[in-house]
Structure formats: C-alpha cells, structure tokens
C-alpha cells in the first residue's frame, strides 16, 4: 500500500520561520522528468491548487500534485542544515539511485 509522503516537524518549523502560510503559500514538492538520473525534485513556495494533496502541520502546508504523488509514496520531506547549506531534503524509498546533490534520482 502506498502511503503519502511524511513531512518532519523540522520542515514545518522551517516553513513557519520563513512565514510561508502568512503569505498564503505552501511548500510545493513535485517530481519532473530530467536531471542527471532521470527524475528531479522541484521544491518551491507556491499557491495550493485544487487537486493537490495537502499535508499540514504547525499551521503550515506542504502540497504535492497528483502526478508527482506516486513518485513520492512513503517518502520523508525534511529540512537539513549542513555545512553545504540549509535546504529541504527528500528521503525517497522509491529511488533506486540518486545523484550526489540529492535533487535527481531514478526509479
């Protein structure tokens, strides 16, 4: 059974810090063709659409469109602060391989 992606508390807290909901925006996580491994993640602040899956926490929203959803089943959307910078990251159990930067993957 495919479960929707999970969003960590840390990711929701980061969205609250940048005031996403205050601007009426959500974090959109999408999957597109392209990238060095076949698919790549598109992560941006965006307006929620009617057919989006909406994941809510801490007053914030993360949205996934219906086309991207199967690629993100059981994935974890997190926020990471590392030496290379702070960014939203996706741990995707469906990806069979990924590139070094973590934005591109294959299934």
Biggest sheet strand line-up: 4-5-2-3-9-8
> Which descriptor suits the 3D outline?
globular
Tell me the CATH architecture.
Answer: Sandwich
Biggest sheet, in brief? Answer: 6 strands, mixed
Mean pLDDT metric: 91
Helix-strand string: EHEEEEEEEE
Q: Could you explain the architecture of this structure?
A:
With 107 residues, the chain is mainly beta. Strands 4-5-2-3-9-8 form a 6-stranded mixed sheet, covered by helices on one side. It has a 3-stranded mixed sheet with strand order 1-6-7. It has one domain: Hypothetical Protein Aq_1857, Chain: A. A hairpin with a 2-residue loop joins β4 and β5 (60-64). It contains 1 helix and 9 strands, in the order βαββββββββ. The model has no long low-confidence stretch (mean pLDDT 91).
Short note summarizing the structure:
The protein has 107 residues and is mainly β.
Topology readout:
Layout: E1 6-7, H1 9-17, E2 26-33, E3 39-46, E4 53-57, E5 60-64, E6 76-82, E7 85-91, E8 97-98, E9 104-106
Parallel strand pairs: 1-6, 2-5
Antiparallel strand pairs: 2-3, 3-9, 4-5, 6-7, 8-9
Keywords:
6-stranded mixed beta sheet; 107 residues; Hypothetical Protein Aq_1857, Chain: A; mainly beta
């Amino acid at each position: 059974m495919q479960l929707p992606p999970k969003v960590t508390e840390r990711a929701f807290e980061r969205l609250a810090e940048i005031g996403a909901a205050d601007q009426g925006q959500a974090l959109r996580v999408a999957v597109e063709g392209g990238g060095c491994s076949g698919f790549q993640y598109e992560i941006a602040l965006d307006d929620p659409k009617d057919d989006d899956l909406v994941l809510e926490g801490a007053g914030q929203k993360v949205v996934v469109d219906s086309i991207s959803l199967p690629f993100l089943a059981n994935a974890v959307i997190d926020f990471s602060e590392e030496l290379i910078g702070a960014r939203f990251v996706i741990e995707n159990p469906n990806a069979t391989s990924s590139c070094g930067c973590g934005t591109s993957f294959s299934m």
